[in-house]
Protein 1
Amino acid sequence: MTLELGSLVAASVAYLLVLFLVAYAAERGAIPARITQHPLVYALALGVYATSWSYFGSVGYAARHGFRYLGIYLGVTLACLLIPVLWRPLLRLSRELQLTSLADVLAFRYPGQSTGTAVTLFLLAGSLPYLALQVRAVVESARVLSPSASPTLVGLGFCAVLTVFSVLFGARHLTPRERHEGLMLAIAFESAVKLVALVAVGIWAVSNVFGGVDGLLAWVDAHPEAIDALQRPARDASWSPLLVLSCAAAFLTPRSYHVAFTEAPEREGLATATWAFPLLLLVMNLVVPVVLWSGEALGLPWPADFHVLAVPASRGATWLALGAFLGGVSAASAMVIVTTLALAPMCLTHLVLPLGYARGQPNLYGWLLWARRLLIGIIILAGYGFHWLLNIRGTGLVDLGLVSFVAVAQFIPGVLGLLFWKRATRAGLLTGLVAGASLWFLTLVVPLWASPGVVAWTHRMAALLGFSDSEPWGFATFASLTLNGLAFIGVSLATRQSAEEAEAARACTREEAAPAAGGVVAGSPDEFRRKLAPLLGEEAATAEVDRALKSLSLPQDERRPSELRRLRDGVERNLSGLLGPVLARMTVEEALRLEPGARTALAEQLRFVEERLRDARGLQGPVPALEAVRRYLRRILEDLPVGVCAVGPDGEVVIWNATLEQLSGVPVDTVRGHPLEALPAPGARCCPVSPAVWTETRRRVSPWRASSASSGCTARGSLPRSRARARPRGWPSWWRTSRHERPWTRAWRIRTGWPRWGAWPRAWPMRLATR
C-alpha cells in the first residue's frame, strides 16, 4: 500500500493547524482554566520527552538490544522518584529568580558570562543530532508510505512548516516570564495523539496479524527465539549507562527543562507528574514487543525502526497507517517546536545580547522579539544541515538520539554541585564541561562521518573497558562523565571561590542569604525609570518598573528605603527573565546602585526566611519541623502582650508588633521600613531610643539612661553587668510597661541582647525567631 506525498503533506499541515487552534483557543480563554491548568495536562506535556526515537526507534532498538529498550523508561521513573530532591529546588530557583533555562540557572550559581555562553553553546551542539533525528524520522517514514517522495523536498518542507508554527506557538509575543498555557495544552494534546496512535497500532496488530491474544501467545510459543532475542542482551550488557542518560534527559534536555520548569503550572503539578509521566511511557513501551513480533511474523522488508508504519501499511490499513504517520509527525514536531522555543531565548540571552546590539534600543521588546524569531529559523535550519551533512543513514534512531543524551549528561556534575555542594566554583564547572564535551565529540560525533579506522578505534577502546563494541555511547558516557566529574571536583577544590559565587551557593542550597541592604541611589519609582531608560529604552524601563510595582503591591510614590530595595530586587528578577541573570545584574548594578557599605538587613532576612518557609511546606523530614518552630516563635513575637519593636542597621523599623500598634495607635504598615527619626508622632515618642543605643557596648555601666532629642522623652533601663557587651545591630528590643499607665507618660524598661531562660520575658530564644 502506498500513499501520495500530497496526501501526507496535507494531512500533516491540517494536523498542525489543529494544534495551533487548540493553543490559540487556550490563550484566548475559550478553554476553561480548570482544563489548561490541570496537573494531568502538565504530566502529558512532559511526554515531549518521547520523541520520534521513542515512537519509531524503540522497536528498532528492541530488535537489536532486546529488553534493554526499557531502560529509557526506567531512567525516567528514577528521575521522577527524585522530584523532591532535584526537581523542586530547580523549580524554586526558576520561579523566584525568573530563570527560564538551564543556562540561566547555571549562570546564576556559577556567576559569569562565560558560564552562560559555554552552557548555551554545548546545549546547542548537543541538540543538533536530536533535531537531525526528527528530520530523518519524518523523511524516512514518508518514504515508507510514499516511496517516490524526495528526501530533500520532504526534509526542507518539514523544517519550513515547523519554523512557521514555532513562531506562531511561542514567538508571537515577548512573554518570557509568563506560562504559555496554549503551548502546554497543544503539547499535551500531541502526547495524547502519539499515545493513542501507538496503542491503536498495537491493538490492530494483535487482532489482524495474530488473530487475537490467543494467536499472539501461540506464535510466541512457536518462536522461543523471539523471547530469547529480547532477554539475551538484557542479561549480557550493562544497564547503568542507559539509566543514567535517560534519567538526566528526563529534565535536563532543553525541551524537558522548558516544560518541567519554565512552563510549570502555578498549581502543584509535580506530585501528579511523579506517577502520571512514567505511566504514560510505560503504556507506550508495552506496545513495542507486539509491533516488533508483528513485523517479524509478516517478514517486512523495512527496518524495524519503521514497523509502526509498515505493519498496518502491509495489510492495506490506509487510515491506520496515516494515523500512525501523524503520530510520528506529532512526536517529531513537538520536540522541534519546544526545543527551538527553549534554545532561541537561550542563544539570544547568552550569545547575542552580550555583544551589545540591544543596548539603548528605542524599542527593546520589538528588537528582542524579531531576534528570537530569526534564531528559531536558524536553529531549525542547523538541524536540517546536520541531517544533510552527516552520513547518518546507517545509524539507528535511538543510537543517534543517545549522542545527544550523552551531551546533556555532561551537566550532571554542575547541577549536583548547584544543589548540594557550596564549594563548587565556576572554574571547576567550565573545566569539567570542556573536558567532558571534548571526549563526547571525539568518541561519538567524529565517528558519525569519520573513516572506518576511527570508528574501529572507538570500538576497541569501549571493548577494553568492558562495553559492547556496538554501543560506543556506553563507553562515551562512562569516560566523559568520569573525566568531567574529576575535573569539576579537582579544580573547584584548587581554586578560590569568589564572594559572588559564595552568595549564589547559599541561595541555591536554601540558606538564608538575604539581599544586600543600604539605600538605593534612586529615591523613587520615577527615578528608577529615568536611570534605566538609557540602558533599556524609555518604554521598556517604564514597563519593567511598573510590572515590579504591581507584583509587589507598591504605590507609584513609594519612598521607603526598604521598599525601594524590594523594588530594585523585583526589577532585577523581571529583567532576569528577559535578559538573563548576568545581564540583568549588570544592568541593575549600573543603573540602580546601592550605597557603599551596604550590609544585610534584618528586615530582608525575615522576609527571605518567610519565603523559604512557604516553599518548604512540600518537603519531608526534619526541615519542615524546624521551620514550623521558627514560624511559631515568630508568631509569638508578633502576638506578645508587650510592645516589641526591632530596628535594622540603618535605623529602620523592622518589627512593630500588634501590642505596640495598639498602644501607639500607629498602624504597622505606616511604620515598617521607616527610620525611627522619621516616624510621625506619637510613634517617634513610643520608641525614644536613638540608634546609638544599639552600639552602646563595652561600657560596663548599669543602670543607664537614653534620651531622644526628637521627642524629648527619656528611657530608663538597665543592662546586666555580665552582659553589657557589643550586640549585633538589628536585634530586637523589649518595651514593657504597666497597663495602668497612660501610653505616652509611662516609663519604659528596656532589655536588649540574649534572653536568659527562666526570667520572663527573656525566656524567648530571640535569635532563632528572627535570623
Protein 2
Amino acid sequence: MNDKAYSFLQHLILLCCCASSFLVYCQEDVYHEVFTAREGLGIDFIQDIVQDDAGYLWISGENLDNREIIGKSDLLTFQRFDGTNFHDIQLKHDNTSVAVSKMIRFDDQSISLHSKNIFGPNINFSYDPFNNTLEIKDSWELSGPSNLRRIEDSYYVLNTSDETTVEVHKIEDNKVGTVLFSFENEVNKIDLDRNTTFVKFGDIFLISDNNFPITITDSLGVVLKKYPYKGFNRSRDLLVKKLWIEEAFVLNDHLYAFMNNDDRLYEFDRKSLEFKVLNNELFEGKQGLKTYVDPNGKVMIAFEKEGYLFLAYFIDKGKIDVIYKHPIKNAAAIQMWSMDLNKELWIGVQGELHYYKFPNDQFEKFLVDKQLRAIKAIDSVNFMVATENSGWFKYNHDLKNITPFLMYEKDAPVSLSSSRNIILDQDTLWTNTSGNIVAVHKENGNSKSYRYYPIQCLEELDDSTLVYGTGYHALMQFNKNTKGHKALVKTDTLDLIDLAIDHDKKWIVTATQNGVFTYNLETQKTTLHSDLLKENYFLMADYHKDYGFLLGSRNGTVIQFHPESSSFDVIYRDNLEAGIATITPYRKNLWINTFNGLVQYDVESKTSKRFSSKDGLVHNEGNRYSAARTQDGILIGNLKGLHHFVPEELNALQSKDSLKLLKVRTYDQNLDRFVELFDQSAFAKAEPILLPRENRQLELDFSLTGLDVLRNEYYEYQLNEGEWTNLGDQKKIKFLNLAAGSYDLQIRAKDFSGGTIGQPLNLKIISKEFFYKTWWFITLVLLVIAIVIGWFLYQERLKSLMQVKFSQDLLQNQEIERLRIAKELHDSVGQQLTLIKQTAQNNKLDRISSLTNTTLEEVRSISRNLYPANLYRLGFKASVEQLLEDVDNQTPMFVDLEVEDVDDYLDDKQTLNLYRFIQEATSNVIKHAHSKSLQVAIRLKKSRLELRIVDKGNGFNDVNELKNNSLGLKTLSERINIINGQLEIKSSKGKGTELIATIPLKNDAFS
C-alpha cells in the first residue's frame, strides 16, 4: 500500500468514526425504555394516556383477546402505571367491562372516560382515581357524545342529537352541559368516534370527521365554510379520497394540520379559511402520525416511517427538529402524553408503552456509556479525553463536538487504555498505558512506548522527569531524554494509588491503601502517615495553589495535608461515605466527584449540595483522574461518559415526592375470593387491614408520586420495629401467610444517597386467629378447666373434711363411750366387787377377798384408762407426770419427762386430746419400738404449745406411707387435727422416731 492510499484509508476511518460518534452523541442523549406485556402491560391496543396529579399514568384501550373463555365482563381496558408496576383496574357498567377510547383530566382531578359502543349510544363517564369510583355523566344529557376535549381552559363535547345533527356542548364545572350551537350534515349518518376532530382557533371552530366534510363555524355556530362534499356522498366515487383533518394543533397563533391520507403539512389561513401546504419532505411515506401539545405549548410530532418511529419538535413555520428515532414494529395508531416535552414523553402503540427521557440541559454529555479517565486541556478550546478501554477522543468545547483521536506506533494502529494522566510537553503528550510510559504526538497520533512496570499514577516533576507510582513495587522516575526508568524509593508494601507534587518541587505526596506516603525530594526522606484517620485508604491526591495538597479517602473524607509538619485538616466528610474520585476548586467551592454523585461544597459556609442522575448525570459514580477546568465550567468523567457543566447554572432538583399506598389485595371471606382495593379515601382513614383466619395472605402495592423511571430509589419495610428488610426497587410486598397477631408495618423509600424520600407509610395489620386459638377462647377453656378442677378439689376437700369430721366424731364418740363404760365399771361393776369383797371379809373368805380385791383394782385401772378421772381432778401436767411415772415403773424403759405448767393455757378439749395423744404414743412405743428410753417434752413457745416425743427404738423409713396406712399413726394425727394442731413425724430405720406436735393457743391465754 502506497503512502497516498494509506493516508486516504486513515482519513476514511477517521471520517467514519466521526460520523458514528456524532450519531451516538445525538441518539444516546435520549433515554428510551419500552414496557410490554412482560412488564405487566395488559392492554393490547392503547387508545389514550393521561397522568394524574400524583404523577401516575392511566392507560385505556382494548384487549384483543377474543377467546370465548374470556367473558365480556372480564376484559381489561384500563390500567394504572407507577413507573414499575401496572395495576389492573376493572371498570364495569351493568356488569360489563367499559371499553375506554378517550380520556381527559378535569380540574377536580377526576378523569373523563369516553366509551365507544358499537351496539348502542356512546357514554361519557367520570372516574375518580382517588376513590376508584365510576359515574355516568347523566347531567350532560347527551345521546351520542364524542369524547371530551379541553381547549384552553374550557371543556367541550360533541353530541349527535339525531342521525344528521351535530351539537357543540360546553361543560361547566364537570357537571352541566350547555349547547353552544349545532349544525346539520346533509350527506351521511353521523357517528362520532376517535376520527372526529374539534379545533378552536381564536373565535372560530373547525369540526372534522370521516363522516362529513370539514365545517368551520363562528362562536355562535354560524357556518362560515363547508368544504366540498366530494367523497362523502353515499354514491361517491371510490377513487375520490375523503378530506378530513387527521391531526391539528395551534402554535404561536398559527393553526397547523395533517390531512387524512396526505403526507403534507398544512397551515390554516384565517382570512381565506383555506389550508395551505407547507412543503416538508420529512413526512413523505409516513404510516402513522400523532401530534401533541404540552401544557407549556411545546409541540411534538411522532410518526412512523420505513420501520422507524421518529420524534420531532415542531419549532415554527414548518421547521422540524428530529431529536430521536428508533425501530418499531407497528405504530399505525400512536397515543402521546407529556407534562413537559423538554423533559420526557410517553407513547403508546399496539402492545407497547414507550418512555423517553430527554437530555437535561444542566449537563452536556458526551461519550455516553464509556468509562472516562484522564482529561487534559491542549489549548483554551480543545481537550484530550482518555477512556478506560475505548481509546482517546478529542473534544472541542466551542463546537461541542467530540471525535476519536487515532494513534499509531510503527505505522500500526494502537489504542491506549487506562491512561491515568496526560502531560503536555510542546507537541508531545506524555501518558501511560498498562506498564508503558507513552509519548504521543498531539497532532498526528504517532506514539512511542517505553515499557517497565504497571503504572498506577503519573505526574511531571520537571522538563525532563516524570514521576509515577506502582503497586507494591517502587516510586519511580522516568527521564524523558534518556528514556530510562529509575526507582526513587522501594515501596513493596504499598499500593501507590495516586500522587501529587507541590509547586516548589519539594514534596511528592502519595495516596496509598495504608495512609499518606511522602517523599522529600531534597533529603530523600520518606514517611508513611498511617494514623491520620480511622479509615486510611486514600484514593486520590492533588495539589492546588490555593489549598495545597488535597487527598480523598475511600470513606468520603477530604483532607488538606501539610507535609512539613506532618499535620492535616479535615475539609469535608461525605454524609454517604462515598469514595472521593476528583476534587476541582472553582471560586469559593470545591466540586467533589464521588462514587455516589457530584458534590458542590462551599468551603466558607461548610454546606453542600449533591447532584445525581435525576439532575442530569448519566451515572452517579465518578471516575478517578478524570476532571478538568474549561473557560466557563468543569469537565468531569464517570462510569458512563463525559460531562460538562457551568457551576453557576447548576441546580439540584428538590424532590417533593411522597410514598402512597396504591393497592391492597386480601381475601374476602364473605365473597370467598381475593379482592383488590384501590380506594385512596379508604387508605386515608388509616384503619387496620384485617386478614381473616381462613386466608391470611396480604399483598400491598405502593409507589412514590411524581412518576420517574430513572429515579433509582429503593424500598424497605419493617414489622413491629424489627429489622428493616430491603426490597430493592420492588414496589410490592406479599405475605403468603401472616402469622396471627397485630402488626405495625412501616414502609419507606430511599434515594440513591440513602436519604428517606417523603414520609414513610405506616399501616396497622390485624391477622385474625382461629377461634380456638384466640385469647378469649383459651381464657374460656382455662376458666372451664379451672372451674372443673376447682369443683373436683372442692369435692375432694369436702370428702377430706367429712373424713376428718368422721374421724373426729369417731374419737369423740369413743371418748363418750369410754366415759360411759368407765362410769358403768365404777358405779356398777366396782360396787358389786366391793360388796363381794366385804362379804368375803365378813365370812373370812380370804382367798375370795384377795381375788376380788385384785379384780377390783384391775377394773379401776381399766376405768381410769377409759376415762382419766385424775385429768380433771389433778390437771394436765400432773396427769401426764403420773402416766409417765407408771410407764417408767412398769416397763424397762427409761423415761425422761420435761413438762412446763400449761394447764392454764389449755381448754378441756385440748387437755383430753393431748393427754390421749401422749397416752397412745407411749403405748405405741411400748408395743412396737422396743426402745430403751423415752423422752417427752412439753414447752410453751409464744402463742403455741410444742409437744415432742422421742424414742430410740426400731424406727421406720416410709413415714408418709406408714402414716396413711397405720391406724395408730392415723389416730395420733386425728387427735392433733381435732385441736387444730400440726403433727410432724421423723423416723429412720434403726434410729428411732420423733413426734413433734404443735398446737396453737388462744391469744387471750397470754394476756
